[in-house]
Amino acid sequence: MTQRLDQWAGSLQDLGPVILGENRDVTLTQIRRSYIDKMAEHPTPDGVRIEPVDMGGVPGTLVTPEDVAGDRVLFYIHGGAYIVGGPGGYYGLAGAFAKAMKARVYLPDYRLAPEHPFPTPIEDTFAAYRWLIDQGQDPRSVTFAGDSAGGAMVVTVMVMARNADVPLPAGGAALSPWANLEHTGASMFNREGLDPLNTKAGLDLMARTFLGGALPNSPEASPVFADVRGLPPILVQIGEAELMLSDAIRLASHLGENRVRVSLEIWPGMFHVWHMFHAELADGQAAVANAASFLGQAICSARVGS
After folding, report:
1. Distances (CA, A) of 30 to 12, 33, 85, 203
2. How would CATH label the architecture of 2-305?
3. Strand (E) or helix (H) holding 29
4. pLDDT higher for 7 or 156?
5. Cβ–Cβ under 8 Å, residues 129 and 161
6. Do 243 and 184 touch, CB atoms closer than 8 A?
7. 257 in catalytic set
8. In the predicted model, is pLDDT for residue 1 greater than 60?
9. Closest by CA position to 173, among listed 125, 236, 98
């Protein structure tokens, strides 16, 4: 698994030089393709159907398991620092959630920076969620999940929905969330070198690229600064070896201090989005199972409380 982690990290080794204009032998399109190809090596579980879907003008992917419990839906938001990534790299993880939750999984393919900087990726994701609700989907049967940048958007898109009077989902799971683009948490410094996928310098560059001149403490970019009152229950899962550890803890505290029911799980020794390795890593499988259970309970509670 160490080799696969190194290959995953290596798929982005040219991203910084390309963004800075220092490497013209590789294009951003090639880097994005390589990144998705590397993620797509994680096996897709048997018994799921994968098909494209138009989510109100936002392209997306629908993953459907053989056994669906009623109208359950998981709205999954992929990571990639708002610069890389896409549904094509998530068939394995989305399929695992689909089977564990007995839910259809929608993955919006939002536009990426730097061509489409902040707040376009977030607005695309919100538009896809609004489309889902406009189709008549019962929000009490919908939950959110997302990793890294997508983990931050779990919270951010809920805030946008609340502000726009769009019904909120039953709950959400933020996996290794990139929750504070100021990068002020202590783990940004004392976990440097322990996190096999990220460096602070790399995260700083990706944040600037995404923000396009916006402030890193903009609430829509960094949910640790957002008004989160009234949101449904949220689970935050973070690896202890991650640079983002302290800011994920800060996000959980911020949610709790604003009367959002929150659960925080810190997984010793785990790296950024270890869930991707659920097929071969016991802690990855357990983390997915915990998140699926949390989200399933949120749906049950929403229906009982309605």
Report:
1. 10, 5, 12, 20
2. 3-Layer(aba) Sandwich (3.40)
3. helix 28-39
4. 156
5. yes
6. no
7. no
8. yes
9. 236
Give 6's pLDDT tier (boundaries 50, 70, 90). confident
> What pLDDT band is residue 3 in, cutting at 50, 70 and 90?
confident
Kindly list the domain boundaries of the chain, sorted by start residue: 2-305
Q: Catalytic one among 11, 34, 141, 148?
A: 148
Alpha-carbon span 258 to 232, nearest angstrom? 11
Q: What tens digit of pLDDT does each residue of 193-235 get?
A: 999 999 999 999 999 999 999 999 999 999 999 999 999 999 9
**Residue of 254, 272, 275, 278 marked catalytic:** 272
User: Average pLDDT in the 169-195 region?
Assistant: 97
Q: Which residues contact 288 (CB under 8 A, 6 or more apart)?
A: 93, 96, 97, 100, 275, 278
For residue 281, the SS3 value is coil
Residue 301 a catalytic site member: no
Task: Count the neighbouring beta carbons within 10 Å of the beta carbon of residue 122.
Answer: 22
Please tell me the distance from the alpha carbon of residue 151 to that of residue 248, in angstroms, as a whole number: 10
Strand order in the sheet with 104-108: 48-55, 58-65, 104-108, 73-77, 142-147, 171-175, 234-239, 262-267
Q: Is 278 noted as a catalytic residue in this protein?
A: no
Cut 0.85: pTM above it = yes
Q: Which residue in this structure is represented by tokens 């992929």? A: 78
Coil, strand or helix at 147: strand
% residues pLDDT > 90 (the chain): 94
For the chain, what percent of residues have pLDDT higher than 70?
Answer: 99
Q: Which of 141, 242, 246, 265 is catalytic?
A: 242
Q: Which residues pair with 106 in a beta bridge?
A: 62, 75
Comparing 5-14, 118-127, 250-259, the range with the smallest average pLDDT is: 5-14
Cα distances from 34 to residues 10, 11, 19, 41, in angstroms, run: 10, 6, 16, 11
